[in-house]
Design brief:
Helix 6 crosses helix 8, helix 6 packs across helix 9 and helix 8 packs across helix 10. With about 350 residues, the protein is α+β, with helices and mostly antiparallel strands. The chain has a five-stranded mixed beta sheet. Helix content is about 45%, strand content about 10%.
């Protein structure tokens, strides 16, 4: 298994299993998955792949894990690698030219070098009855490295590549590659938005102070037009979140000196971010990055959030519990003062 999660990189080596050892036991032996005992051939590979997915998820369910879903970004590299092992007569996780799993998935666009991902791979081949999906799964479950990949909680997706033939014998049998993965598909512009907001709390900082950091990020990971358009609104929104969360923290724990001391700094981030119109900030960013001017896309009334997503609404009005008690007390006192004034003298 390879991972770049939390900026860590490590490898758990896996070995290739061809057949289950005598007396081996695995949940896959009894799983009711259609096609699990079908010997792979050119005309039934889709059925065998579906059976393989069923067996994988049956093992994960038995371990209390969530099921895997098929990802095209993993399936194509898996199938291509199985075909390559057969045609070039080798059987290994590293190809003869030195290409690794991560190389293949980067080339296929499933992962990015600087992204946040976890991937792993199982390979196998068999002939006759030991080439069925069930036989392969039993062999994998009795191999510690393969079993670990199948039962890794972090994996959410899988690609299953099965081709006829085996390394060294294309006349019969089948070769399997299953590539496992999980990718956090966050918008990279969110990363630079956090950096920009951090710059804004320094003494004397303005939106112009953030341009060198934005330019440095763009040189490493070019921003798209949509990301440039979204950047400054995200900075403003981050300022709002910092202010509201800070106020709520102080309200819940007024003895928290750190949270109390951060209130002014967090408000300064919001004040400076909101001090420049979004259109001006965006145009200045485009200029700093050497991009031509562009008109912002007009909203045509389409839903902003995908169907089924229910946003959380935060009430930041003065009388909201989100607002500090002192501010609410000030307003209530002011209203009470007005209501208690003697207004009869001016009445007619």
């Amino acid at each position: 298994m390879f991972s770049r999660r939390h900026a860590a990189t490590f490898l758990v080596a896996a070995v290739a299993a061809l057949a289950a050892p005598a007396g081996a036991q695995a949940h896959a032996q009894d799983a009711a998955c259609p096609g699990a005992d079908v010997v792979p051939a050119a005309g039934n590979l889709t059925q065998v792949a579906s059976a393989t997915l069923c067996l994988l998820n049956d093992e994960r369910a038995a371990a209390g894990l969530h099921p895997l879903t098929v990802a095209q970004g993993l399936t194509q590299p898996s199938a291509s690698y199985s075909a390559r092992m057969v045609s070039e007569n080798f059987f290994a996780h590293v190809a003869p030219d030195g290409a690794t799993l991560t190389d293949r998935l980067e080339a296929g666009g499933y992962i990015e070098p600087d992204g946040d991902w976890t991937v792993g791979e199982n390979i196998a081949w068999g002939q006759g009855e030991i080439s069925t999906a069930r036989s392969i799964m039993v062999a994998w479950m009795n191999s510690p490295g393969h079993r670990e990949n199948i039962l890794t909680p972090e994996f959410t997706e899988v690609g299953i590549g099965i081709v006829p033939g085996t390394p060294g014998d294309t006349s019969w049998g089948a070769t399997y590659t299953t590539d496992f993965g999980d990718v956090i598909e966050s918008w990279a512009v969110g990363e630079i938005a956090v950096t920009v907001s951090s710059v804004l709390h320094h003494d004397g900082a303005t939106y112009a102070s953030t341009l060198p950091a934005i330019a440095a990020f763009d040189r490493r990971r070019p921003l798209s037009d949509d990301e440039i358009t979204a950047l400054w609104p995200l900075v403003v929104l981050r300022g709002v979140v910092l202010v509201l969360s800070g106020r709520q923290q102080v309200r819940l724990d007024d003895a928290n000196d750190y949270a109390s001391g951060a209130l002014d700094r967090e408000f300064e981030i919001l004040r400076r971010a909101a001090a420049v119109p979004l259109e001006v900030a965006t145009a200045r960013i485009r200029h700093a990055l050497g991009r031509p001017p562009a008109d912002a896309a007009a909203w045509e009334g389409a839903p902003i959030l995908p169907a089924g997503i229910h946003p959380v609404v935060l009430d930041a009005t003065t009388l909201s519990p989100m607002t500090c008690d002192t501010c609410r007390l000030c307003l209530e006192t002011s209203v009470a003062d007005v209501l208690s004034q003697d207004t009869t003298g001016g009445a007619s």
